[in-house]
Amino acid sequence: MTRPSPPHGDGLSLRGVAKAFGERSVLHALDLEIPAGQFVALIGASGVGKSTLLRIVAGLEPLTSGRVELRSRSPAPDIRMMFQEDRLMPWRSVLRNVTLGLRGRDDDARRLLAAVGLAGRDNDYPVVLSGGQRQRVALARALIHEPELLLLDEPFGALDAITRASMQLLLEGLLARRPRTVLLVTHDVEEALILADRVLLMRDGRVARDLSIDRERPRHRGDPELAALKEELLEGLVTAQAAQAGA
Ligand SMILES: Nc1ncnc2c1ncn2[C@@H]1O[C@H](COP(=O)(O)OP(=O)(O)OP(=O)(O)O)[C@@H](O)[C@H]1O
Asked: CA-to-CA distance for 209 and 239, rounded, in angstroms?
């Protein structure tokens, strides 16, 4: 399965992005070009600044210096973020969580709920859903806005391995039909290699490795080339984690 062209979504450009929390400098003059439609995975030791970077791109965190630019064809580009926790509103039904802030989009919401495997669950409340089902609702809630840029912060991190694999398949299928620019933070190197066009390893507040993953989709976990890349990235992560711990 290859992605259809031309790519959808918007390109993202980061120039000299730096961020400090008080005395603690987290990101150091980070430069990054992400072309429209590219799926980028961000990995790195705990505390290296992955979530901070995503929050900066989302406009949730101010920069200390530098520039973030979304090169958009739309006058009001939409950026959506998805987190490890679903952040659903427990007092709203599944359908009303997806249509939050929108009017007259019930049919679109139902179509999306069907696409994420939740047909017929519109009137259920989040409390009766499993963790994986709740993340499916969260994904539908993000996608209904047709975001130019999708920011995913460990979205499947709290799920068991089987549910996580099925969510990865689901995301891959949805993006094959409608490609978008995606920035995914993950601790799961395999997830990065299965999903992304490009994997960035962050270290010391910068991008230390920038790997293009030129493998056909769907990808297979047993692919020896991916297994070799996994080894290489895990080694890089362990070194980075040790450096981070000593920082
Ligand atoms: N609001 C804040 N105030 C002060 N320090 C912060 C704040 N947010 C993050 N930090 C610090 O910035 C650094 C990077 O945090 P961030 O959450 O971006 O790391 P991360 O790479 O996403 O980590 P993890 O993989 O553990 O989620 C950490 O040292 C963290 O303590």
From this structure: 13
Q: Which of 26, 84, 184 to mutate to test the pocket of ligand 1 (most atoms within 8 A of CB)?
A: 26
Q: Which CATH superfamily is domain 1-78+152-159+183-247 in?
A: P-loop containing nucleotide triphosphate hydrolases (3.40.50.300)
Q: Is 247 in the pocket of ligand 1 (CB under 6 A)?
A: no
Domain chopping of the chain, boundaries? 1-78+152-159+183-247
Residue 107 CA to ligand 1 center (angstroms) comes to 39
Atom of ligand 1 nearest to the CA of 48: 21
**Which of 17, 19, 21 maximizes ligand 1 atoms within 8 Å of its Cβ, making it the mutation to test the pocket?**
21
What ipTM describes this predicted complex? 0.97
Encode the chain (247 residues) as per-residue pLDDT tens digits.
Answer: 444 444 566 899 999 999 999 999 999 999 999 999 999 999 999 999 999 999 999 999 999 999 999 988 777 888 999 999 999 999 999 999 999 999 999 999 999 999 999 999 999 999 999 999 999 999 999 999 999 899 999 999 999 999 999 999 999 999 998 889 999 999 999 999 999 999 999 998 899 999 999 999 889 888 999 999 999 999 988 887 777 676 6
Question: How many angstroms separate the CA atoms of 235 and 212, rounded?
Answer: 17
Whole-structure pTM value: 0.92
